[in-house]
Write a structure and sequence with these properties.
49% strand, 14% helix, 15-stranded antiparallel sheet
């Protein structure tokens, strides 16, 4: 997860390698609402009292209805709150979609797709629908917030006023749930909690696990308006090696539109915990920005192949000494359990320039134990590669697994918190 901090910083400052050439998924001109509308009723705008009931309207007593869906060949028997039998449609990518009547005249649309696919593609599709429907609408605005009560979910709301002065809101809720990624939308002034209830039932019903797979869900925030949700998966393989995968969705408002980015990092290690294969990918506004694979041979030589910003990134790198994700986790665990003063963590990082020599290098950071209790420990990480202006504080449990981190570089501050499974409670900050 530590790599996510650098990715988040890049997305915030813009113009860096991962984000170059990005554009928003579309925008709708935003104007100030009419000055005569001066009463707040829970919206981001000042709205008349006559809209209070519509904005606050929910339908939380709808009975649960059984429905069976198929995602990537797996069948899920779900229970969803619906005022009528849901309409289920198979999607060409192995996913499924549901149209669910939430209330009189209000229908929610949900799409589930294999979790290894990009959640951002679902968000982008929903946002493009909003942009396409923007004819006759004005004063569109958006708000991005974490969705409470679910392991890894986020809420995006767009408010608008039509040319005939009708107020509306288009809501999107999305999240990771085990092997499935879900996104639900509704076009209604209210029904935020109603839609959240629907998404919650879908996520809980598809949250499958097995002894070989361990999943950790987390959320990231920054003062610059960025919000992100992610899931880290550790899969024990038959040969006693392991696959570790990080999937993250980054969102932030941008020029009246929405900036959407997916990030993927996979690493396979052998029975000795040494890295064998790595893949790093990113998609910005639904378009491929980075997809590079690294293979480590028995003699330590690295083969790099893929594409970055439309340019081929191919070559080899002589043997480098670095730690796999599993090895770094073991070093942190030993630091916490044995109370060492400091340790070094060495990670493999790709070059920003696809034509650089070498194409990969080792990034080193010093990890110092600041405080330790029976339940958690506080660590401070300092980069040793010249990024001395960045500071990282990490709270970990007694096994060295992260609870919370605060990463700061200049004016950028990124906070990451584990949302599931439950973690030890930290003292107030």
């Amino acid at each position: 997860m530590n790599t996510m901090n650098r990715v988040a910083a890049c997305l915030l400052v813009g113009g860096m390698a991962l984000c170059s050439g990005c554009r928003t998924s579309g925008s709708v001109p935003e104007k100030a609402p009419p000055p005569e509308k001066t009463t707040l009723v829970g919206s981001r705008w000042a709205l008349p009292e006559s809209l209070a009931d519509a904005v606050a309207k929910e339908r939380l007593d709808t009975p649960l209805v059984p429905v069976t869906v198929n995602v990537a060949g797996a069948s899920y028997a779900l229970q969803v709150p619906a005022a009528a039998p849901p309409v289920v449609t198979a999607e060409p990518d192995g996913g499924t979609s549901l149209d669910v009547v939430l209330d009189d005249g209000v229908t929610g649309h949900c799409t589930g797709q294999p979790g290894e696919l990009r959640l951002g593609s679902l968000v982008l599709k929903a946002h493009r629908h909003l942009v396409d429907a923007a004819v006759g609408r004005r004063h569109v605005t958006s708000a991005i917030t974490p969705l409470e009560g679910l392991p890894s979910a986020i809420s995006v709301a767009w408010e608008y006023i039509t040319d005939d002065d009708t107020y509306g809101a288009y809501r999107l809720l999305a999240g990771y749930s085990g092997p499935v990624a879900w996104a639900c939308t509704v076009d209604s002034p209210g029904h935020q909690a109603t839609l959240a209830r629907l998404l919650g039932e879908l996520m809980r019903g598809s949250l499958r696990g097995d002894e070989a797979t361990q999943r950790t869900y987390y959320a990231m925030t920054s003062g610059q308006g960025m919000r992100a949700i992610g899931v880290e998966e550790r899969v024990t393989q038959a040969d006693q090696g392991a696959l570790e995968r990080d999937r993250v969705l980054f969102l932030r408002p941008a020029s009246g539109g929405l900036f959407i980015s997916d990030y993927l990092q996979e690493e396979t290690s052998n029975a000795g915990e040494a890295m064998v294969d790595m893949r790093i990918g990113s998609w910005v506004q639904g378009e491929l920005n980075l997809d590079v694979k690294v293979h480590r041979a028995d003699d330590g030589k690295l083969t790099v192949s893929g594409v970055r910003e439309g340019k081929a990134m191919n070559g080899s790198v002589e043997s480098l000494t670095f730690q796999s994700a599993a090895q770094r986790r073991r070093v942190v665990r030993d630091l916490v359990e044995r109370g060492h003063d400091a340790v070094m963590l060495d990670s493999l990082d790709l070059a920003d320039d696809p034509e650089a020599t070498p194409l990969a290098e080792v990034v080193r950071e010093e990890l110092v134990l600041i405080r330790r209790t029976d339940d958690w420990a506080l660590l401070e990480a300092t980069p040793q590669d010249g990024e001395s202006n960045s500071v990282s504080l990490r709270w970990v449990d007694r096994h060295g697994d992260m609870i919370r981190s605060e990463w700061t570089r200049g004016s950028i501050r990124v906070v990451t918190e584990i949302t599931w499974p439950p973690v030890p409670r930290l003292p107030p900050r």
